[in-house]
Amino acid sequence: MPADLKSKVTMIPSEAVPDVWPNILPGLEVVKKKAGTDDFELIYQRLTDNEAFLFLVPEGFFILLPIYRQHPVVLLWIGYGVGGGLLARYMPLVEAMARDIGAETVEIESTRPGYRRVLKHWQRTGNRYTRRLT
Q1: Above pLDDT 70, what percent of the chain?
Q2: Domains in the chain: how many in total?
Q3: Contacts by 127-134 with C-beta closer than 8 Å and gap 24+?
């Protein structure tokens, strides 16, 4: 993964979430209108409780939620950005971060039909897309 890409991503510590929350709310509203999301209170609570993790990028932000089942999974819980190709651009970084915590898969859940095309090489079950990390 290009080092310049990694340098564009800023992880927001849980204690700083209240400071940046007003800045990401408009993006959360857009995601809610396009794809639906969990309620904002739950998102905020998980971010401030260090259960989910917020990353800012120049084009927007994404939130990762580790899930522990039979094997560790990282859910790309929410992603927002302005411009095209952001999922493809940042997915190598998301996958690297998932591997760093021992995750075996990355998942995305979305009702957006465009993901069928973008994630065509991922395993799809309903609205959940799964990619096994190698």
Answers
A1: 96
A2: 1
A3: 130/105, 130/106, 131/95, 131/105, 131/106, 131/107, 132/104, 132/105, 133/95, 133/98, 133/99, 133/103, 133/104, 133/105, 133/106
